[in-house]
Design brief:
single chain; about 300 residues; mainly alpha; Lysozyme; Membrane-bound Lytic Murein Transglycosylase D, Chain A; three-stranded antiparallel β-sheet; about 10% strand; disordered N terminus
């Protein structure tokens, strides 16, 4: 009897701890809203879209996939995914999902997933504040099979006023004001990682010399790591790598979008410009066309 009572107490305690450990919608927003805004600056995906999708796909960070694999967007491995994997039952048994070292990697890969596929290219032609257009566009482009997916995203955005995280295009320039709902300055020298390469996000007061000094690097190293020259200008919110990029990306291919260059694609994927050129039999000065497929993990045949 005593043993049974103790077991019941222990079970109640475990359930209480598990319940307390469950993330609420408000907790999720507070924890990850700055990551969503950061992705908007880096990759032009509206912050409210990223955050709402993360909330919906991960059940506010409580799903098995988000807890075990830091995968907040339900992105599956797809052919030739080069990162870690996590296997679990979903639509079918033993499906392969992408696994990340941290949640920011999941957020970064979500943006890259949208930016590197031609079927989502029309979304980036929309005004960054047109969250309804993005929601319906994601469904039309095949992101989700749920027929109510756009309405569910819109409901989350409007219930929690996530649209206030968005900014218009002209606020993405140096000296511009950031949204009132986030910090007025990007984090002081916070270091991130993508494709196993460390990077920082440029602040308003930055210069190549300052970044090099802060990380005890030579100016030439910063320029070399990012395939840049002294003539290239820094811009607020830009991604700058502080170590050498890799020879292969996590994604197998990239479909060229409007206004992209070989250099910008190299920065997006954390891969060396010389590697992209070698794999695709190109020169750094070559012009690329919208819709052109670039190989990022193996050589073009």
């Amino acid at each position: 009897m005593v043993r049974l009572f103790c077991s019941m107490i222990l079970l109640f305690f475990i359930r209480s701890v598990m319940s307390q450990d469950k993330t609420t919608a408000e907790n999720y927003i507070e924890m990850f809203k700055e990551d969503a805004v950061r992705e908007m600056y880096l990759n032009k995906v509206p912050a409210c879209i990223t955050l709402a999708q993360g909330m919906l796909e991960s059940n506010f960070g409580n799903s098995q996939l988000s807890r075990k694999a830091n995968n907040h967007f339900g992105i599956k491995c797809h052919k030739e995914w080069g990162g870690d994997t996590y296997v679990m039952d979903d639509d079918s048994a033993n499906e392969c999902f992408r696994k990340y070292d941290n949640v920011l990697e999941s957020y970064n890969d979500h943006s890259l997933f949208l930016a590197s596929r031609s079927r989502y290219s029309s979304l980036f032609e929309l005004n960054i504040n047109d969250y309804k257009g993005w929601c319906y566009g994601l469904k039309r482009s095949g992101y989700a099979t749920d027929p109510k997916y756009p309405e569910r995203l819109i409901a989350i955005i409007e219930k929690y006023k996530l649209q206030s995280l968005n900014v218009s295009e002209n606020t993405l320039s140096p000296g511009a004001q950031t949204p009132v709902s986030v910090k007025s300055e990007l984090p002081i020298r916070e270091v991130f990682r993508f494709n196993h390469v460390k990077f920082i996000i440029v602040k308003k007061s930055d210069s190549y010399y300052k970044i090099a000094h802060d990380f005890n690097l030579e100016l030439e190293q910063i320029l070399d790591f990012n395939d840049l020259s002294k003539k290239d200008k820094l811009s607020f919110g830009q991604k700058i790598y502080i170590e050498k990029k890799r020879r292969r990306a996590l994604e197998p291919i990239h479909v060229v979008q409007k206004n992209e260059t070989l250099k910008s694609i190299a920065q997006l994927h954390g891969i060396r410009l010389s590697s992209i050129c070698k794999k695709n039999k190109l020169k750094p000065t070559d012009t690329i066309k919208i819709g052109e497929v670039l190989y990022l993990r193996k050589k073009k045949k």
